[in-house]
Amino acid sequence: MKATEHPEQAAQTQLDNRLAKAKPVKLGWSPEETEEITQALNDLLANYSIHYQKLRNYHWNVKGADFFDLHEQFEQQYTEALRNIDDVAERIRIFGKTPLSTLKEYLEAAEIKETGSQLSSELMVRELLSDYRILLQYMFNVVEVAVRHSDSGTEEMVKVFINQLEKHHWMLSSFMSK
Ligand SMILES: [Fe+2]
Question: How many angstroms is it from 64 CA to the middle of ligand 1?
């Protein structure tokens, strides 16, 4: 160290001039890769959002001998869905893209369809089992795209959702075979 060089005069940033001036610093994915990952996430987001509202619908409107079990179960599931939806949307923002954010966009983009409110409890459960199968296909697609682009963050996030949904599928299938 030269006599004039004090520690506080050392470089204040690890970035060279070019990187320090280039704002914002991007994540490491190309525009095409980013588009593919966030498109897969948006497809999942739209379907998950319709499914979430169906859970609330069924929580409010379920009737009959199964009321207490299903009313409670649907609340647990929509609480979980709400957290997962938030994570998916924020993951899209992490990539600098815009998540689908309006109900109109969700209804247009989603494969999962809304139903009315006057369903039997058995039909509500059948609807949800069908939703899980659709959601799982979109989740598998996200994982496939994420793995192909070495996007471990997205991969790990969605794999947790897959385990949760498969468990719901088991539980409601068992409920149906009582
Ligand atoms: Fe409630």
Answer: 17
If you measure from the C-alpha of residue 60 to the centroid of ligand 1, how many angstroms do you get, rounded to a whole number? Answer: 7
Q: Of 56, 46, 41, 158, whose CA–CA distance to 101 is shortest? A: 46
Asked if 165 contacts 131 with a C-beta cutoff of 8 angstroms, the reply is no
Alpha helix (H) residue ranges in 10-66 = 17-21, 31-61
Domains and CATH numbers, the chain: 28-176 (1.20.1260.10)
Query: Pick from 88, 79, 86, 81: which is nearest to 42 by CA?
Result: 88
CA 177 to centroid of ligand 1, rounded, Å: 26
Q: How far is the CA of 168 from the centre of ligand 1 (A)?
A: 19
- Count Cα atoms within 13 angstroms, Cβ side, for 108: 6
The predicted model gives 98-113 an average pLDDT of: 98
CA of 76 to the centre of ligand 1 (A): 10
Query: pLDDT digits over 3-62, tens only?
Result: 555 555 667 778 777 777 766 667 889 999 999 999 999 999 999 999 999 999 999 999
| 94, 85 Cβ separation under 8 angstroms | no
- Ligand 1: distance of its center to the CA of 147 in Å? 38
The model's pTM is 0.88
